[in-house]
Design brief:
The protein is mainly beta. The strands form 7 sheets. Strands 12, 13, 14, 16, 17, 18, 19, 21 and 22 form a 9-stranded antiparallel β-sheet that branches. Strands 23, 24, 27, 28, 29 and 30 form a 6-stranded antiparallel β-sheet that branches. Strands 6, 7, 9, 10 and 11 form a 5-stranded antiparallel β-sheet that branches. The relative contact order is 0.11. The chain folds into 3 domains: 140 residues, Immunoglobulin-like (Sandwich); 105 residues, Immunoglobulin-like, CATH 2.60.40; 93 residues, Immunoglobulin-like (Sandwich), CATH 2.60.40.3620. The chain is built from 2 helices and 32 strands. The N terminus is likely disordered.
């Protein structure tokens, strides 16, 4: 009996050792790689020209070499991701840890950056937030990495960075074709009325958000200038809607009646001045994400701050939690990030909070065509 037990133990030990060796053989381990070499069609230390009149033109073309990652199972068989990282001289790329100043490129070995996208990274309040019209010296580098956390070491530890290129830039403030929305809710004063804009957020109709306090007639008009002396858009009939959404036709007849919404609320308005139609949607905004109070199932409501003219929520985040903004508990109207990490409707990327803590999350929709967000630690 003792001999049988010994034979069984030896057999079992051999199986464990074989299994352990197989697990080691299956594990993919990074052996090494080469820092990418970054080049551009604009010489380092030169000026990258940014002009709104050329917003769809090319600001700069970046190219870089393959880092040629090598793993224990041979040359890289994994898709490499690349980030173009941008920050001001002396900041040492400290902003990129929060996702600011980053253009994600995957898996190409270069990117032709459009003027408006480069300017957004510089000037948007949710990106670097540089002052329009002011000249800055910036630095640019490329980061190569794997997003596969199952590799050894983990994906983030596989990052390789290029040397930096230095440029001079002067960002501009983007302007868009604009309408005004004077009404009873703000004293019928066109000069101080909120705007609708034809912008990248909505290129098919003028759009903007207005906060209408409870009380009054809830009536307004849409004007083509900051006065009533130009084209005024009033009620053209065919009105439909309810407490949440609706709209109708527009009329440029001077005698046309006023437009109206059903009550107080934070409204998304659109106006198609070619087709002469308009819409309203009463929005209640929330934050949904991976953080504990949501787990991608529950929206944390946002509160409107009339002083800042922004929506906000106070949220406890774990490190690297992600989130999006959405209206009325639905993804029909939602904001994420686009490939250039700019706020965008139906943005394919989530917003990441790199550091754990209690933060105030702001969503600023009061400037038509220039929507932004911010995450501010308490």
């Amino acid at each position: 009996m003792k001999k049988i037990v010994q034979i069984f133990f030896v057999s079992f030990l051999g199986t464990v050792l074989l299994w352990s060796c197989k697990k080691d053989e299956d594990r993919v381990v990074l052996i090494g790689g080469t820092r990418p070499i970054l080049t551009a069609n604009v010489a380092t230390s030169d000026t990258i020209l940014l002009a709104e009149a050329d917003s769809l033109g090319t600001a700069v073309v970046f190219s870089w070499t393959n880092p040629n990652y090598q793993f224990s199972n041979g040359p890289s068989a994994y898709a490499v991701s690349y980030d173009i990282q941008i920050d001001t001289l002396g900041a040492n790329f400290s902003d990129v840890t929060g996702g600011k100043g980053v253009i994600t490129v995957s898996p190409a070995l270069g990117d032709s950056v459009v003027v408006k996208n480069f300017n957004n990274v510089l000037a948007s309040a949710s990106q670097l937030g540089l002052t329009a019209g002011q000249t800055y010296t910036i630095q640019v580098r490329v980061k190569a990495y794997y997003a596969n956390a199952g590799l050894t070491p983990a994906g983030g530890a596989l990052a390789l960075y290029s040397d930096t290129l230095t440029y001079v830039v002067t960002p501009y403030k983007a302007t868009f074709p604009t309408l005004w929305v004077p009404g009873d809710y703000q004293g019928w004063t066109p000069a101080t009325a909120p705007n609708l804009a034809l912008s990248p957020f909505n290129s098919s109709a003028y759009e903007g958000y207005i906060n209408v306090a409870s009380g009054g007639t809830y009536q307004f008009k849409i004007t083509s200038a900051a006065d009533f002396s130009h084209t005024n858009y009033g009620d053209g009939g065919n009105d439909v809607g309810n407490a949440t959404s609706g709209g109708g036709d527009l009329s440029t007849n001077g005698g046309a009646g006023n437009l109206s919404v059903p009550g107080g609320g934070y409204y998304r308005l659109t106006a198609d001045i070619t087709g002469l139609t308009w819409t309203y949607t009463n929005t209640a905004w929330g934050v949904i994400g991976s953080f504990a109070a949501s787990t991608w199932t529950t929206d944390v409501p946002m509160i409107y701050d009339p002083t800042r003219q922004e929506l906000y929520s106070v949220i406890t985040f774990a490190a690297n939690d992600q989130f999006k903004f959405r209206a009325n508990g639905s993804y029909a109207i939602n904001f994420g990030l686009d490939a250039s990490n700019n706020l965008a409707y139906n943005g394919s990327n989530n917003i990441t909070v790199p550091t754990a803590g209690v933060d105030t999350v702001f969503l600023d929709l009061h400037t038509a065509g220039n929507y932004t967000y911010s995450v501010v630690p308490q």
